[in-house]
Structure formats: structure tokens, C-alpha cells
Amino acid sequence: MLIVYIIWIVVALIIHFFALMRLFPLFISIPFLFLSFFSFFTYLNNRHRFRGFR
User: Fold this and answer.
1) Which of 33, 15, 35 lies closest to 25, judged by CA?
2) CB distance 43 to 3 below 8 Å
3) C-alpha distances out from residue 1 to 6, 15, 27, 29, 47, Å
4) What's the rounded Cα separation, in Å, for the pair 48 and 20?
5) When you count CB atoms within 10 A of the terminal residue's CB, does the N or C end of the chain come out lower?
6) Is residue 24 a contact partner of residue 33, using CB atoms and an 8 Å limit?
7) How many domains in the chain?
8) Chain centre distance of CA 1
9) Predicted pLDDT at 50
10) pLDDT score for 1
């Protein structure tokens, strides 16, 4: 799953780079980049969370 998130971030960075060169709309690439980083850090934060004793 970690590799999928890393690939998603790389794709978002490439799309954002194209948006900075005015080849892609910037207002679409910024939320896409934000969501990719947000989901990646959320995944990293929730991996080793203590779930309590059973």
C-alpha cells in the first residue's frame, strides 16, 4: 500500500509541474496534490496505532 501512495504522490507532482508550465489547469492540480499528501500522511499516522487490549 505504501508504494501505491508514493506512486500517487509522484503522479500528482508531475501533474502539478505541468500545471506550473500552464499545460494543465492549476486549480485541478493543487487539490490533487494536497489530497495525495494528506492521504499519505494519514496512512503513515494510522499504521501503528494502539487499539487497546482484548
Assistant:
1) 15
2) no
3) 9, 21, 27, 23, 11
4) 37
5) C
6) no
7) 1
8) 12
9) 78
10) 87
User: In this structure, is residue 29 part of a structural domain?
Assistant: yes
Q: Which domain does 26 fall in, by range? A: 2-46
Output the nine-digit C-alpha cell for 41: 500522511
39 in a structural domain: yes
Task: Decide if 51 is inside a domain.
Answer: no
Quote the pTM value.
Answer: 0.82
> SS3 of 51, please?
coil
**Cell triple for 4:** 501505491
What does the pLDDT look like over 1-54, one tens digit per residue? 899 999 999 999 999 999 999 999 999 999 999 999 999 999 999 887 777 887
Q: How far apart are CA 8 and CA 25, in angstroms?
A: 18
Q: For residue 54, tell me if it sits in a domain.
A: no
Helix (H, G, I), strand (E, B) or coil at 32: helix
